[in-house]
Specification:
Layout: H1 2-20, H2 54-60, E1 75-77, H3 78-88, H4 90-93, H5 121-124, H6 128-138, H7 149-162, E2 171-173, H8 174-179, H9 265-271, H10 289-296, H11 302-312, H12 331-342
Antiparallel strand pairs: 1-2
Helix pairs in contact: 1-2, 3-7, 6-7, 9-12, 11-12
C-alpha cells in the first residue's frame, strides 16, 4: 500500500507543479455597466512555480517494488549491519530485534498459521524488497532518509540474519536480495475485508451471548523490567479522580541499613542489558531468570555451564530464538549474575 501511495504522490506533485507553472489566460476586456460607465476591472492572474525537474521527481519516486524496480545497486554484510543496528536501531527494536518500544523485528517465523501467531518483520513479510524499501524511506525513526544505500543493504542483511534467514557471514546485494524467498511469500491474500467489501472477515467467531458475566473488571500489570523506566509515575500524574499514578520508583533502602557485600547480580543483569530479553519472574524473549535458576539448580557444574552460555550464546535449550554471545560482559559480572540466577533471582 505504501509503495503505491508514494508513486502516486510523486506523479501528483509533478502534475501540480507543471499546472502551477502554466500562465492563466489574460483577463477579458473590462465590462461596462448598464449606464455605460466602465466596471471595475478584475485583477489579472498568473501562474506560479515552475515545472518539476527529473531530479525533483526522483526525490519523491523512491519506492522499491517486489520485482526490483527502484532498487539501486549496492551491497552490505551482516557484520556491517550489526554495527549500524547497534548504533541506530537497537534503542527502539531491542538488542536482538525483540523490541523495546516498537515492533519486534525478529522471531515468530512459521507461527502465523498456528494458535499463537507472532507477527514480526521476519514472520509476516513476503518480499525482502519491502524490508529494504521501508528501512530506506522511514528509518531511523528520528532521522529517516539519512542512511546510505550500503547501510540499508547491511541493515536488511542483519535483520534477515536475526530471523535465521541469512547466515552470519552473508553479504547482500541487489541480485541476492531479489533471489531471497521469505517464509511468508505465499501468505498474503486480498480475499479479506480490508481489501474488498465482499472479502471475508479476519475473525469468524459468533458471540455466544449466554451466561455473560455480571461484572467485568479490567486490570493490567506493569512488567518488572519496565517498572522504573520513566521514573516514579505517581509524581507525574495529578492527584485528581479515583485513580492516581502508580508508584513505580524502585524501593529505597531502609534508613541505617548497610549495602550488601559484593556486586548485586540483579543490578548487573540490568546494567549489562540482560533484562531486555529476560524478566526476573516472567518470560520476555528468552526465559525468566527464575526459570533458568530452577532448571539448573543443584546440577553439577551449573555455574560454569551458565557462565559459558553467557559468553558463547546458543540456541535450542529454550526454543529457536538465538541468544547471541556476550563477550563484552566482565568476568566478575558474569559470575555475580550467574550466582544471582542460581540463588533464585531474588
Amino acid at each position: 500500500m505504501f509503495r503505491c501511495c508514494r508513486r502516486s504522490v510523486a506523479a501528483a506533485v509533478a502534475a501540480v507543479l507543471a499546472l502551477a507553472a502554466t500562465p492563466l489566460p489574460a483577463a477579458a476586456p473590462a465590462a461596462t455597466t448598464s449606464a455605460g460607465s466602465p466596471a471595475t476591472p478584475s485583477t489579472p492572474r498568473f501562474g506560479f512555480g515552475k515545472p518539476a525537474t527529473p531530479q525533483e521527481i526522483a526525490g519523491w519516486d523512491i519506492d522499491v517494488r517486489p520485482d526490483g524496480t527502484g532498487l539501486p545497486p549496492g551491497r552490505g554484510s551482516v557484520a556491517q549491519g550489526q554495527r549500524v543496528y547497534d548504533e541506530k536501531c537497537a534503542s527502539c527494536h531491542g538488542t536482538f530485534g525483540e523490541s523495546n518500544d516498537y515492533m519486534a523485528i525478529a522471531g515468530g517465523v512459521g507461527t502465523l498459521a498456528g494458535d499463537a501467531p507472532i507477527r514480526t518483520t521476519g514472520s509476516k513479510l513476503n518480499h525482502a524488497t519491502t524490508l529494504w524499501d521501508y528501512i530506506n524511506r522511514a528509518m531511523p525513526f528520528n532521522a529517516p532518509k539519512t542512511l546510505t544505500v550500503e547501510e540499508v543493504y547491511a541493515l536488511t542483511a542483519y535483520v534477515l540474519h536475526l530471523n535465521d534467514l541469512l547466515p552470519a557471514d552473508a553479504t547482500l546485494d541487489r541480485d541476492a536480495l531479489l533471489a531471497l524467498r521469505l517464509p511468508n511469500r505465499d501468505g498474503f491474500t486480498q480475499d479479506h475485508g480490508f481489501m474488498t467489501r465482499s472479502g471475508r472477515p479476519d475473525t469468524r467467531n459468533v458471540a455466544c451471548m449466554t451466561n455473560c458475566a455480571a461484572e467485568v473488571r479490567l486490570s493490567s500489570e506493569m512488567p518488572e523490567h519496565a517498572r522504573d523506566a520513566h521514573g516514579n509515575l505517581a509524581e507525574q500524574v495529578r492527584d485528581v479522580g479515583p485513580l492516581a499514578g502508580a508508584k513505580t520508583a524502585a524501593a529505597a533502602p531502609a534508613r541505617g541499613s548497610l549495602p550488601a557485600a559484593g556486586p548485586d547480580g540483579g543490578e548487573l543483569a540490568k546494567g549489562n542489558g540482560c533484562t531486555a530479553c529476560h524478566g526476573t519472574a516472567s518470560k520476555i524473549v528468552g526465559p525468566s531468570f527464575r526459570e533458568i535458576g530452577g532448571r539448573y539448580a543443584g546440577a553439577a557444574g551449573a555455574e560454569a555451564t551458565l557462565a559459558a552460555k553467557v559468553r558463547s550464546g546458543g540456541v535450542g535449550a529454550w526454543g529457536q530464538v538465538p541468544m547471541p554471545p556476550q563477550p563484552q560482559v566482565k568476568e566478575a559480572d558474569v559470575t555475580a549474575i550467574v550466582q544471582w540466577i542460581l540463588g533464585g533471582a531474588r
